[in-house]
Amino acid sequence: MPSEGFPLAGKRVWVAGHRGMVGSALVRRLEREACTILTAGRTELDLRRQDAVERWMMAHRPDAIFLAAAKVGGILANDRAPADFLYDNLLIEANVVEAAYRTGVGKLMLLGSSCIYPKSADQPISEDALLTGPLEPTNQWYAIAKIAGIKLCQAYRRQHGCDFISVMPANLYGPGDNFDLETSHVLPALIRKAHAAKLSNADTLEIWGSGTPRREFLHVDDLADACVHLMSIYSQDCPVNIGFGVDIPILDLARLVAEVVGFEGTLRCDPTKPDGTPRKLLDSRRLRATGWQPRIGLRDGIAQVYAHYQQQMQPCVS
Ligand code: GFB
């Protein structure tokens, strides 16, 4: 892989979306680099407003941008708010990418998602599977917006020579996740449900869908580390998958969460809830070829997130 080299030392680096789980992990990771970290809160800057984004960029002049800001959510949130997932994400990406071009930003990384790939893509899913088949209906709106983001990076590279790249993470989890049962992803939902079931001595823990879909989970601190690594060395238009390398059926994930949390009852599937994509395991060979490896195993990662969750809950429990 040809490497242009873009060291972050001495640079002004904007983490767009720094309050989210991914953005805050990026800030934690960038604190170890000799760069200046720029952030903008939601009240200061609405990324869906083109003028505001351009004004902010003109005033703050980042050299590099991690575009982690996005409207995100789990399978039900995606299904129930298609307009928000499509509109918000399209605007955020278009505004930041265009302003980055206009203000001469040296490098931009757009964070996508493994759900951009076709529902029936061959496993593990290589970057070449993009746009080779129909998407999973529950999250097609979010996926279309993220595909547009990849295409924006490619188009600005082709037309204007901008060094804009994109990465596609596996299903993420970590500290700062959303634990709202209606809008969250599966892992924080299971942690919350297992914890509540343990405290109330409930007999069962409910799992949405059939429990058979398989997902690949990556700790957000591993993701942040891979992003900083790729920002420095990767400079091509093809997106790069960032995965852990192993997937697990949702039922086994629920068993693991129950074990870590200490819930000893039974697991019950709710077939009225959607399964989504049957399997999403990324082919991360392109990334591995650069020498990067994830470090946080799933059991340890879940234990860490559960500890965070308990700390967060402390005032309510006591
Ligand atoms: O994490 P999740 O919502 O996202 O669901 P996706 C993964 C699987 O876990 C699905 C099942 O098969 C769910 O039915 N599941 C079981 C649960 N119990 C629960 C629960 O209590 N809550 C939730 N949320 N799921 C999302 C996309 O898809 O993945 C986003 O909708 C994004 O756009 C994200 O791409 C990474 O993996 O199905």
From TrEMBL:
Q: Name one Pfam family in it.
A: Epimerase
| Top-level division of the source organism's lineage | Bacteria
Q: What class of enzyme is it?
A: oxidoreductase
User: Where does the chain bind NADP(+)?
Assistant: 17-23, 111-114, 146, 169-172, 185
Q: Which residues form the signal peptide?
A: none
Biological or metabolic pathway of the protein: Nucleotide-sugar biosynthesis; GDP-L-fucose biosynthesis via de novo pathway; GDP-L-fucose from GDP-alpha-D-mannose: step 2/2
Q: Which reaction does it catalyse?
A: GDP-beta-L-fucose + NADP(+) = GDP-4-dehydro-alpha-D-rhamnose + NADPH + H(+)
**Residues that bind substrate:** 193, 208, 215, 275
Q: Which keywords does the record carry?
A: Isomerase, Multifunctional enzyme, NADP, Oxidoreductase
User: Can you give the residue ranges of the NAD-dependent epimerase/dehydratase domain?
Assistant: 14-242
Q: What is its EC number?
A: 1.1.1.271
CDD domains recorded for this chain?
A: GDP_FS_SDR_e
Stored InterPro entries: Epimerase_deHydtase, GDP_fucose/colitose_synth, NAD(P)-bd_dom_sf
Catalytic residue positions:
142 (proton donor/acceptor)
Role, per record: Catalyzes the two-step NADP-dependent conversion of GDP-4-dehydro-6-deoxy-D-mannose to GDP-fucose, involving an epimerase and a reductase reaction.
Which family, according to the similarity comment? Belongs to the NAD(P)-dependent epimerase/dehydratase family. Fucose synthase subfamily.
Q: What is this protein called?
A: GDP-L-fucose synthase
* Organism listed in the record: Sphingomonas desiccabilis
Q: What is the lineage of its organism?
A: Bacteria, Pseudomonadati, Pseudomonadota, Alphaproteobacteria, Sphingomonadales
